[in-house]
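Re: the 553-residue chain
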Amino acid sequence: MDKISDLPKMILHDILSRLPYKDAARTSVLSKAWHETWSSFPILVFDGSRCVRVHLKDRKDPLKIQDNRRKANSFLKSVDRTLVRFHHHGFAIKEFNLSMMFFHPRFMPHLVDRWMKIAGESSSIQVLKLELELAGCFFGCEFDSHAVDNYYYLPPDVLKAKSLTELVLFGKIRADKLIVNHRIRFPMLRILSLVGVYLGHEQALEDLISGCPMIEELILEHCVGLENVKVHDLPKLKSAKFSGFREIHVDVPSLENLQLGNDKLEFPCDISIDKCRNLKGFFLGAVSSVFVSNQWLLELFDKFPFLERLELSGCVTSESLMISSSRLKVLSFEACVELKEAKIDAPNLESCKYSGQFSHMPAAISFENCSNQVDFDVVFALEFRMDLKRLRAFIQNIAPRNVMVSLYLGIMKGSSIVFHEDVLENVQVPLRRIKQLRLSVDEETEEFCVLLINDLFWSFRPAIISLNLKLCSRIFLKLLLEKLRCNNEEERRCSSSHQMKCWWHDLKDVKVRSSPKKYENLSDCEELLDSLPINFFSPNLQLNFELEWDSLQ
């Protein structure tokens, strides 16, 4: 027997805890010793989605309904056997993680109650995660999935888990009665996350938080029945995320990272966070009551002098913004459709990201007094109509030219491309160098793919092209490989009479890097495309082409 198997169970459990859960489970077949180790492993993860896949198209199919019932029952019995065995043998439980997207309010609560009781009574329990969604229609019985009476009532046995350091509740769970009828006390809790949970009213949240004085991370999102969030008297709190509330008041000087969102809900959100003077990271998402202007930015950096990270997503902004901060290191704009121009004066800036759509592309983004090592990531993820002339102008107008630009283009099937016949006449030289060009092209029309490839290379000089094979059509991949492997004058013959050479003439060398590391040249990649059935369920396979250009002129 190997020497590792002779180690004490505590050490073997520690080894397993450092592995991905799937890999840890596989150790049970190595030997009898490892099987015994796995059978008492104190981290229990039960994910119902692995065995019961719920699809809308199956809700009226009697055979699918019967199959879902069988699989759900098998899953429930497996969880029950495991928990009862742990309880019977007195095995420790450090983590209990249960996820069921098919919870039924009539047939399943008593089982979940029993599991909560076993987990709550374990003196070593540290992590409790419970995710429940209602899906009765998939078992042939209809009920209102939005009625709070059908939610699962969190049992009092949870309160026995005084050693909890992390509590995560997600979905159709009611915690209001537990909080109202019992004194909450989790003296060691560090992480509290409540998403979609029914709390009922503001006092329930206050009572819950008051019993968890050591919280360091707090997440509250779309808690049913709760409109206003007030957080204070949490001296250890470092990170918080709030979304879907009418009022958010945070008075926690220790807070360093804050995420606020409204998820584009129609009602305005009243925000009060001025007391959080030590903020280092601030994310603001789709809060319609906040107008991001130059004045708002000045006040923001004045209120939070240590702010190093600012992310704006779906925000209403001025057409022109001036962002000036001596401490800012990370800046991000996502779906800020009103933004037309941004000037960024941040000497310590390390990275900036712009994510949006072609129809709302800014005219110019410039970096003043910034480091030469600033990484600027430009993302256009879901595009159906592309104007690459506008994209080229946008990239060319990024100033200064030594900013390292990475570009991601996600192009869907059925997209159209605005191709300009005078593309070569409008190209500015020297061509813009792109640090990395990441492509996901689902289009299968050969003419489209050829135009796209040529227009991109006539516009930019990417140092690296990155492809996720399962997100690209086979036709696009084959055409790109054909273009990159052109290595003789006959293949490189240019049909253009323009004085500027076609991009093939400047391409000096191509190196291939793949993950997993298996394909090292273009011929290998072609063999891969011929042999691999690429679809959404295929393993991730990343191909990187490192391009060496003869000149940028």
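The mean pLDDT is 85.
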